[in-house]
Predict the 3D structure of the following.
Amino acid sequence: MGIARMDTNVQNIHREAPNILITGTPGVGKSSLCQRLSEIVGMQWLEVSRIAKEHNCLEEYDPVYQCPILDEDKLMDGLEETMCTGGNIVDYHSCEFFPERWFDAVFVLTTDNTTLYDRLTNRGYTGKKLDDNVQCEIFNVILEEAKRSYKEDIVFELSNTVPQDLEDNIGKICQWLQHWFQRRSG
Ligand SMILES: Nc1ncnc2c1ncn2[C@@H]1O[C@H](COP(=O)(O)OP(=O)(O)OP(=O)(O)O)[C@@H](O)[C@H]1O
Ligand SMILES: [Mg+2]
């Protein structure tokens, strides 16, 4: 076991509640799920895109992807204390730049490709932005990123295409949370 991993485990023991990451391609339903989940379990929903905007963590605009560039270091410095306390649901469409020690579980939402195409078109996405996001989903880019960046046994794929999936996924995450608290007290 490497030093980094030992450090990770020591940090986790001190958390009062777990931190979980909800990630996946834009449009897979992360925010819909996080909003519902945070209402049900009372954990804090941290929508990274919104927090970055509110705390001036966005740099110049990327003309190709038609979105601002995130100042990752500034964002992470601002979140460190909150994450050390625990009890957070982090919502973001990328996952590799966060410190590994922050998360007890990483849930990657995935969606049927045609459904995602329709959702993004409805949002007004066109051209390269639309194509790149749909390709990202087709090639499981975020799922692979998560498996590369975190221990595989804390990474869970949740299929999220129809409304019933949302309910099922919330149920699965609640079950995982219950186990975490049982392990901690046991
Ligand atoms: N399980 C589901 N069944 C049907 N529609 C869904 C489901 N989950 C989310 N949606 C719909 O998909 C659209 C995108 O959802 P949402 O905004 O939650 O995605 P997101 O992953 O947070 O996107 P972004 O990364 O851009 O913030 C919304 O219109 C939402 O209502
Ligand atoms: Mg969102």
Observations:
- Residues 96 and 149 are 6 Å apart (CA to CA).
- The domain at 3-163 is CATH 3.40.50.300 (Rossmann fold).
- The first helix runs from residue 3 to 13.
